[in-house]
């Protein structure tokens, strides 16, 4: 028997407990199920357990899964792109996803805005921030974040919702918290600066409690729901 429904229940319980610990309403944290490397049948099991938002890192794999789930007659799902973006791959992202968490350059944002089909809701955007310095190559540097955020917020077919980060792995709870606190502080500065942001995309299987305590509004959880990943 599949463990997906009970894993979803356990993660939800962890989120609720962490939110309560932080004095936050549990509904203020959305669970994004990261289904990369797992097939459409795994997604369907999560859908049957009530999950509606899914994250994908690899474009072709994500597009195939979106199509499979539609063909399987699944209810409307919300697909989030959470992987690195090459500039020649922006069009299918703009056409098939509701959210993108990994925007780190103005050029990518411009293309996503231009390529978002007329008649679709604006694409929901998080800027990925490099909060781990040298340890990470991904994400905009904190010093460059404000300029990028104001440019992206002005693009017509995007809605800038907030910030995302993948801190370098840390085992200690307090260390995990410190990284998330840096992202939250950048987010609060942008809000004080007049940007209407409402999303902090942070926390994965191993550090989701620290992320919720520090204000995460979307946690991106893969292996704790679907099991460990095998890359071919
Ligand atoms: C794979 C991935 C996740 C999920 O990671 P787990 O440790 O399996 O929960 C979350 N966010 C991003 C950007 C990922 O690539």
UniProtKB/TrEMBL annotation:
Q: Which residues carry this modification: N6-(pyridoxal phosphate)lysine?
A: 36
- SUPFAM superfamilies to which the protein is assigned, alphabetical: PLP-binding barrel
Similarity section: Belongs to the pyridoxal phosphate-binding protein YggS/PROSC family.
**What this chain does, per the record?**
Pyridoxal 5'-phosphate (PLP)-binding protein, which is involved in PLP homeostasis.
NCBIfam families, per this entry? YggS family pyridoxal phosphate-dependent enzyme
Secretion signal span: none
Q: Name one Pfam family in it.
A: Ala_racemase_N
Checking Gene3D superfamilies in the record gives: Alanine racemase
Highest taxon of the lineage: Bacteria
Q: Name the residues that span the membrane.
A: none
Q: For the Alanine racemase N-terminal domain, which residue ranges apply?
A: 7-229
Source organism per UniProt: Duganella aceris
Q: Which UniProt keywords apply?
A: Pyridoxal phosphate
Q: What is the recorded name of this protein? A: Pyridoxal phosphate homeostasis protein
């Amino acid at each position: 028997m599949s463990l997906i429904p009970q894993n979803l229940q356990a993660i939800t319980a962890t989120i609720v407990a962490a939110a309560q610990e932080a004095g936050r309403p549990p509904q203020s944290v959305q669970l994004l199920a990261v289904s990369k490397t797992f097939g459409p049948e795994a997604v369907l099991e999560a859908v049957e357990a009530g999950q509606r938002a899914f994250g994908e890192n690899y474009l072709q794999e994500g597009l195939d899964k979106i199509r499979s789930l539609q063909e399987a007659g699944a209810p409307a799902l919300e697909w989030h792109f959470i992987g690195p973006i090459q500039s020649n791959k922006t069009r299918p992202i703009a056409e098939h996803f509701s959210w993108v968490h990994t925007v780190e350059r103005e050029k990518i944002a411009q293309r996503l805005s231009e390529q978002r089909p007329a008649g679709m809701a604006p694409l929901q955007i998080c800027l990925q921030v490099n909060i781990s310095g040298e340890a990470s190559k991904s994400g905009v540097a904190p010093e460059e974040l404000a300029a990028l955020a104001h440019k992206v917020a002005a693009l017509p077919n995007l809605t800038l919702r907030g910030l995302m980060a993948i801190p370098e792995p840390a085992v200690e709870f307090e260390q995990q918290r410190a990284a998330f606190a840096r992202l939250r502080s950048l987010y609060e500065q942008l809000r004080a600066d007049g940007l209407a942001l409402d999303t902090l995309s942070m926390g994965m299987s191993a550090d989701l409690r620290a992320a919720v305590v520090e204000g995460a509004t979307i946690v991106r959880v893969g292996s704790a729901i679907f099991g460990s990943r095998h890359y071919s």
